[in-house]
Structure formats: structure tokens, C-alpha cells
Amino acid sequence: MDNSSDNDFDSNHLLFHCHSGELVWGQLHCICEGYFNGRRNQYDMPQSIPEILGGGTIKQRSYKYRCRAVKGDWQAKLYRTRLSLKDEPFNSGYIIYNIDQNPVEILRRCAAVGYSLDQTHEDRSIIYINRYDWSWHHDYEFRYKINRLLGINYKNSNDNNILESLFAQRIIIVDSNSAENIIQQLKSNPGEFDQCQEKVFIQPSNKLNNRIGVHLSIPKTDYELAWLVFSNDQPNAELIAIVYDGSYTQLDGQILLDQQDVITWNEYQLKIEERNRIQADRLKKLQCATQ
Asked: Which of 2, 128, 197, 207 would you call most buried, defined as having the most Cβ atoms within 10 angstroms of its Cβ?
């Protein structure tokens, strides 16, 4: 039975329902981590961002890939980016949000955070997800359990190529109660999802609100970023949106949603000017300190 549906033209079809008040997020191996972390009752929360892992030259955090989330209907929409006035806007990522939220406002907030490797941004209800925190670059927890769950056998690596392609170039968001079912669905037919940009996961046993998650892909990307947006920065915070940057734009440039400006080109230019001013001030202070 095909438990998914797709549509390449109308983002209004990318609707799903959060029944449990919890969502797992990430690529396939991250979804598995979120599934196992559910047994530990562990969640990603803005007031408990994990520390940077030691022992290497890169900055990497290990998240739980599971969040308490607002119940109800959620929607995903594609946003586009223009990095040069000489070029046309291109499909760069998705915003996935509870339908009671304003996606334009959320995108603007995340663009204001931008690249925040050390999590020093002012909006404390947002968690920035760096390229090494997930995707192919992520050294995932529960490795033995996940490999066994997915049937990955590195002694015969050729059999794993298609399955491991689901470890990057996409984001999967699923109601936590359906995580195990969706993991098995992805495992049984990885080629279908590897070739598809947009899918809505269907739970046939639910007669009402049977859409329980989405699979979204920006093909041919090397690095992926995300921003988890919560209702507040307190222990009772619930996830209200995820912004997925599948093109490593860091939410720079002119950003468009539904053919309308989220960030205008002039706003982007002002942002660049302010960034350059701050960098120049830092360089000047550094030079003064060394004299």
C-alpha cells in the first residue's frame, strides 16, 4: 500500500496534522534518533541547547531530533532566494509551520538570526541547526541500534547506497506516534523518496487527519541548515515552526514566499552593510589591542 502522496506544483497540498504534540525531525538517521530518544523522554528545547562536542576541528552539537510541538494542522511551503539581481530567484528551502502562525514573520525572525554557530543570537526562542549537527556530516547516536533498525550492513556497503541517500538533501518531519511506521516505510522503498522532492506521509489507520508528516528535498545540496522556532524560551516551549535551508544560503539574499517579498533586496543590502560595519569595528579593535 502506498502511504504517501505527492504534488509538485501547489504548496497548499503540503498539509499534515500533529496528533501527539510531538514531532521528530531531520533526515532518516535523525528521525531514528528522535524515535529512540522518545523512549528516554528527551526533547530539543531552547533553554537546553547541547554543548559543542569536543575532540575535533569542527563545531558540532548532538540534538535529540524530537520536540514538543503545537497540536493541530501544519503546513510546508517552499521559499525562494535571489543572491544577485542578475539572477532569477531559485528554490532554496521550506518553512514548515503550525497554520496558526505567520510564516512571513517566522522567516524574517530566522533571517535575523542567520548563521549563529555559537547560539549567541538575541531571539532565544530559536535554535540554529548547523551543517555538522545533522545530514551526512552528523556522527549519529544509537549507531548500532539504528543500523540494525534500518538493516544497514557495512560489510556489504553496495546495498546501503540508496538507503543512506536519505541521510541528506532533505528534511523529514513526522508526528512522533507514527515515527516507527514512517521509518519502516522509508526503509522498504528508499528509491521512491530519493527521487521525490515532496511527499506527504499518510497513516491509513487514521480515518480523520490521516496526514502525519512530510518529506521535503532540495536536490544536489552539500550543506543544510535549519532553525527550530518555539513558542517561547521557557521549559514549556512548544515547536511552532522549522525553517529548512537546503541550499546553504544562511537565509541571506532576497527571500520570497508565495511570490511576495519576505526580505526585500534593499533590506538585504542594508543587512550586508551592517555586517560589514560590525566586522570593520571588530578588526579595528583587534588592531588597536595588538599595537
From this structure: 128
- Is the per-residue pLDDT at 41 higher than 80? yes
48 close to 42: Cβ distance less than 8 angstroms: no
In the chain, domain spans: 4-264
Q: pLDDT, tens digit, for every residue of 94-127?
A: 999 999 999 999 999 999 999 999 999 999 999 9
Distance CA 81, CA 88 (A): 8
C-alpha cell at 106: 517566522
Which residues have CB under 8 Å from 69's CB, separation 6+? 18, 21, 22, 23, 98, 238, 239, 240
Phi, psi of 282 (to 5 degrees): -65, -40
- SS3 of 58-115: the string is CCCCCCCCEEEECCEEEEEEEEEEECCCCCCCEEEEEEEEECCCCHHHHHHHHHHHCC
pTM of the predicted model as reported, rounded to 2 decimal places: 0.90
Evaluate whether 65 touches 44 at the Cβ level (below 8 Å). Answer: yes
Residue length of the chain: 291
pLDDT at 222: 84
**Which residue, among 241, 215, 265, 270, has the nearest Cα to 80 in the 3D structure?**
265
Half-sphere exposure of 166 (CA within 13 A, CB side): 28
pLDDT in tens, 135-194: 988 877 788 888 888 888 766 655 556 788 899 999 999 999 999 999 998 988 888 888
End-to-end CA distance of the chain: 71
Residue 194 — left, alpha, or beta (φ > 0 → left; ψ -120 to 50 → alpha)?
alpha
Q: Which of 54-68, 75-89, 156-170 has the highest mean pLDDT?
A: 75-89
**d(Cα 185, Cα 92) in Å, to the nearest integer?**
27
Give the whole-angstrom CA distance, residue 21 versus residue 131: 27
